Amino acid sequence: MIQAHELKQRDSYLSKLIAFRDTEPVKVITGVRRSGKSSLLKLMIKYLKETGIEDSQIIEMNFESNDYKKMSSDEVYNYVKKRVLPNKRMYLFFDELQRIDHWEDSINSFRVDFDCDIYITGSNAYLLSSEYSTYLSGRCIEIKMLPLSFLEFIDFHGFKLIETKNKLGTKIQVIDEHNEKYEVRELFNAYIKFGGMPGIADVGLDQEKALILLDGIYSSVVIRDILERELRRNQRQITDPILLKKIILFLADNIGSNISVSSIGNILVNEGLLETENRGGKPSTHTVQSYVEALLESYFFYEIKRFDIKGKEYLKTLGKYYIVDIGLRNYLLGFRNRDRGHVLENVVYFELLRRGYDVAIGKIDNLEIDFIATKADAKIYVQVTESMSNEDVRRRELTPLEKIKDNYEKIVLTLDTGLDSSYEGIKSINLINWLIKK
After folding, report:
1. What local confidence, expressed as pLDDT, does residue 260 receive?
2. Which of 19, 159, 215, 351 is 20 to 30 A removed from 400 (C-alpha atoms)?
């Protein structure tokens, strides 16, 4: 078990938990397996103890542990009830709660029966699906946890950013614990090779060890969160692990591409992995949809919708999928330099989510903008490309942005900004600098 002194800070997530401390809503931390949810609970417990909460006021249950995983909802309730102190506020922490049938009955009873502050984690969106949302409707806040940002990756691996000044200006470099200097680009290349799963920091940037760790994450997502979940729900829609892996490989190989469920189905039919629905040869889109939805529910892939900027509406066709961690993609497809443009898009998409934006693909006329990122008080139009040094690439990236007539910020994120930092008000920004800017 992780000890408190070994924990690395995840300040952006911990600050959200602290902000909702001692408020009525149940705090629900969701995200793919091994993204740091359990450690976040430990960080919150450490914080509570530092602010004067006694050990006896804190109850922890991890339902991956043999001690608890075979409990019924009633047994969970009774376990907690025996440990509740009279006239004291209790802090209840439940890790991987989705493994307990009818967990929502216990959580609702705790809210009604005890003076308590409740924190739960889950590795599947099924935890907060429509079947259960009525139990917690208006009574929970969801904190969506992602693998490490590039800044967190630098910190977790024991590096620090430093600024050095010379006659040409300020340069940002990285130093390790022995004060050896590295270029930030070297660390970024490691980031898009190994990904941001926190456990990679424990094994170091070693490809063989990383593969073992990523294999364990992949297996636990597929077996525990998808195949086992189907058994628990008694809904045997997802029964073929070979078909599931084929869909995973297809989506991983096509991150950032416009694809539809029917196009996936057609490819799988051609490969003999999927039967057709009828004599006309139409593939079973319902089957493919079930598998894709399971992957979205397990937070292994994220779907992004297209937004028609002129029509001001979301489009139902041809969304895109991004994988939660580039390291997992490299594990699945091989550690080789492939499809770098879409890899950079994948990195930017999740960084925008971390920064609190709602993200969509933009469509204007017959052109596309990689991302429209919106908050209550802000909007950014974002293009992502490896380099802006080529005239044809510049035209391709700038033309869609030039067609947008509002005054919101428009940027191109790139590893090579070219000679100009601005084109008619559209900024060309170094992607790595953007990632390390707090």
Report:
1. 87
2. 351
Query: What number is the average pLDDT over the span 229-249?
Result: 78
The pTM (predicted TM-score) of the whole model is 0.92
Q: How confident is the model at residue 314 (pLDDT cuts 50, 70, 90)?
A: confident
Q: Identify the pLDDT of residue 3.
A: 40
pLDDT higher than threshold 50 for residue 431: yes
pLDDT (tens digit per residue) in 330-381:
999 998 777 899 999 999 999 999 999 999 998 898 899 999 999 998 999 9
Q: Choose the CATH number for 339-438 among 2.60.40, 3.40.1350, 3.40.50, 3.40.1130.
A: 3.40.1350
4-144 to CATH, choices 3.40.50.720, 3.30.428.70, 3.40.50.300, 3.40.50.170 = 3.40.50.300
The residue ranges of every structural domain in the chain are 4-144, 150-205, 339-438
